[in-house]
């Protein structure tokens, strides 16, 4: 049992099994439950439709009990309405839900596994992100040490060019001289803007230490640290558009 819904689902199944074993000759039976969800799921089943795996045993037991002509009523009642042993049943359900016990014979609905899937995905994503930071992502790690839950550009109407250029700044991989040199398009990786042959032209160099661009970059940053501005990608007051505009006016390739 992994949630209150599954506890209610399982309780109905055990009730139906009890009816079949101990009251198979009864002409009718009334089952009371405070689970609107379970009753709603039963009502939504259509003849000939695919029965969800976690409902198959319930449907089978309903068919077995009513197959002899017996009438079965499943009625909703409010919680804590004086039904005998209701408090005990709730206590047992909470206790069962707190125990990490796996029964291979119990079918768990996919909805019960979603929190687990989400947590596993989050853990893997974080582990992968941290591994990549240790193996060559120091630039991004300087302002983003955990993966973002959603892309910064989600639900924003931006030109693809702006999204691409911003991502290049965030990742530290742009169409700079170092990249062009690695692609064997140019003969030198050194910065073409400041002309310093001791400086390799990278995103970090262009934003932090290029003497030819330093004053304009600082103005575009609004006096804020580069790491703070890059971490603000997607925020309404982010200075990244100003940085990109300045680089564009200077014909700096990104």
TrEMBL record:
PROSITE patterns: RNASE_H_1 (PS50879). It comes from Lygus hesperus (Western plant bug). One of its GO terms (molecular function) is RNA-DNA hybrid ribonuclease activity. InterPro entries: RNaseH-like_sf, RNaseH_domain, RNaseH_sf. Residues 1-98 form the RNase H type-1 domain. This is RNase H type-1 domain-containing protein.
């Amino acid at each position: 049992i992994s949630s209150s819904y599954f506890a209610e689902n399982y309780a109905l199944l055990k009730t139906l099994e009890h009816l079949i074993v101990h009251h198979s000759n009864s002409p009718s039976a009334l089952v009371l439950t405070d689970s609107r969800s379970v009753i709603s799921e039963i009502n939504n089943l259509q003849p000939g439709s695919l029965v969800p795996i976690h409902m198959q045993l319930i449907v089978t037991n309903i068919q077995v009990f009513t197959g002899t002509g017996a009438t079965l009523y499943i009625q909703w009642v409010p919680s804590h309405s004086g039904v005998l042993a209701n408090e005990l049943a709730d206590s047992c359900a909470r206790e069962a839900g707190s125990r990490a016990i796996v029964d291979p014979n119990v079918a768990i609905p996919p909805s019960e596994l979603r929190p687990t899937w989400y947590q596993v995905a989050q853990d893997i994503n974080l582990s992968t992100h941290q591994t990549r930071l240790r193996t060559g992502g120091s630039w991004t790690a300087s302002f983003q040490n955990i993966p973002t839950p959603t892309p910064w550009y989600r639900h924003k109407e931006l030109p693809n060019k702006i999204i691409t250029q911003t991502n290049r700044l965030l990742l530290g991989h742009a169409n700079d001289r170092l990249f062009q040199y690695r692609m064997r398009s140019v003969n030198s990786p050194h910065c073409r803007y400041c002309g310093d042959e001791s400086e390799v032209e990278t995103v970090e160099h262009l934003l932090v230490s290029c003497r030819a661009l330093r004053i304009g970059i600082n103005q575009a940053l609004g006096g804020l640290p580069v790491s703070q501005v890059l971490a603000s990608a997607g925020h309404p007051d982010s200075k990244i558009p100003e940085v990109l505009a300045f680089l564009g006016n200077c014909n700096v390739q990104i």
